[in-house]
Design a protein that fits this description.
Strand content: over 45%
Strand order of the largest sheet: 15-18-19-23-24-25-26-27-28-29
Number of helices: 3
Structural class: mainly beta
Shape: elongated
Number of strands: 29
Largest sheet: 10 strands, antiparallel, barrel
Distance between the termini: 12 Å
Length: 427
């Protein structure tokens, strides 16, 4: 989302009267940053965390702003009714009260009609910009080419102290004095070019691609805890602009040498393992490969970037066992990708990953028989990303764990767990 260098101030602001730009033109829907008095930028749909509040919301051609946080920034005392639907803000010479769903605001005891009623959005009461304009004399403007809402507020000046008694007149005081030339007041700026760049937020990168090498231990019917020698992880995410929806894709491949647990009289090394049909068999030691692709559709429910999601998982291998397919649900914290350290993590559960296996060995009494293999799969991931402000690259690392619990025609449980480290690119 682009940000803006802007400064807007209406002349009526200086006198304390209500003023705002009512003709905003055609407005796109969604959440947009608020620049308040040049130096504070609100960009996150958040409630008073880290000094940030809910962004402006554009809906049905109307701009809504968070009443409580805006009024508190302007020095008002805010109270909420027991049912949470009515908010009252009090400041010297100003009192405003609004109720969710009611198409009016009570300003200094007088009802003022509203085209749109206040609404409750993600736990915050939002009001049309007219409320903060008329109640406290703020100035609001939508800057279409920069897609940002600018709010300016200057508190009214304190009343002047009472004048001291006039001194007694003297002949000198009666002498006419020449008044200095009048100085015209400086008009407030009305362009969008005066907010210093230093106050602008960092660009929030909502999409990324990253790849890492991993060193997990592998436990299954072919491996008794061997380290995977050629394992890697690749993932990417794309978040729709001005939308809580995101798409995440993870790919993982684990490669390991199978257990050397059987040697014949000629010195040949074999792997003895449990089979799908409940028996045992052996095979020469080999390099096994198992891969997993996990596609997730996610919806942000909290900040920063915490989402619930639905995932589709598919596993494959090079040793002839069935491909598994599953649908699951989970929770994910995507990296924020702002300069500094960013935590991320996920936990997804797939209750039934299943696939069919057909016995093809002509010497087996079960040749042609089909077995439906099923696992419960739980995937965990926890890590940290080190992000540089002036580079699209970032370093990340963590620990991941994929656990397969045998349900049906699965010889034993499986686990692939270990650390990883890699590089990512912000998009």
């Amino acid at each position: 989302m682009p940000y803006v260098v802007a400064a807007l101030l209406g002349a009526s602001l200086l006198s304390g009267s209500g003023a705002f730009a009512s003709d905003f033109g055609k407005l796109p829907s969604g959440e947009f940053p608020i620049i308040f008095n040049d130096h504070t930028v609100y960009t996150k749909p958040d409630l008073m965390k880290r000094g940030r509040v809910l962004a402006a919301l554009v809906k049905d051609g109307q701009i809504y702003v968070p009443l409580r946080s805006m009024f508190e920034q302007m020095g008002a005392t805010v109270s909420v009714s027991p049912d949470g639907n009515t908010i009252t803000a009090v400041k010297t010479n100003a009192r405003v009260s609004v109720t969710v769903g009611k198409k009016f605001a009570v300003i200094n005891g007088e009802e003022r009609p509203l085209k749109r009623p206040p609404m409750l959005y993600r736990g915050a009461v939002l009001v049309p910009v007219r409320v903060i304009s008329e109640a406290l004399g703020a100035y609001v403007q939508w800057v279409p080419d920069q897609r940002v809402v600018v709010v300016r507020y200057i508190p009214p000046l304190a009343p002047a102290p009472p004048l001291a008694p006039a001194p007694a007149l003297t002949p000198a005081a009666l002498t006419p004095q020449v008044a200095p030339p009048a100085v015209a007041p400086i008009a407030p700026p009305t362009t969008v070019s005066a907010i210093p760049r230093a106050v602008l937020p960092q660009r929030s990168n909502r999409s990324f691609i990253q790849a890492a090498i991993a060193a997990p231990q592998n436990y299954n019917e072919f491996s008794a805890g061997q380290f995977c020698t050629e394992s890697y992880l690749v993932s990417g995410a794309y978040a729709l602009k001005n939308s809580p929806f995101a798409l995440k894709v993870d790919f993982r491949q684990d490669a390991y040498v199978t257990s050397d647990n059987l040697t014949d009289s000629n010195g040949n090394h074999f792997t003895q393992f449990a089979t799908i049909d409940g028996g045992t068999a052996f095979t020469p030691v080999f390099l096994a490969r198992q891969s997993t692709v996990d596609v997730r559709a996610e919806y942000q429910v909290a900040v920063p970037r915490i989402a619930v999601g639905v995932g589709y998982l598919q596993t494959n291998n090079n040793y002839g066992y069935p491909q598994l397919n599953a649908v699951g649900v989970g929770l994910e914290k995507l990296p924020d990708l702002r300069a500094g350290l960013n935590l991320f993590g996920s936990a997804f559960y797939y209750p039934s990953a299943s696939g069919n296996y057909t016995v093809t060995d002509p010497t087996s009494s079960n040749v042609g028989k089909v077995y439906n293999q099923q696992y419960q799969i739980t995937k965990y991931d926890l890590g940290v990303a080190l992000v540089w402000a002036r580079s699209p690259l970032y370093l990340y690392g963590g620990f991941s764990d994929d656990s397969y619990a045998a349900k049906q025609n699965a010889p034993i449980n499986q686990t692939h767990a270990g650390p990883y480290i890699g590089l990512g690119v912000k998009l």
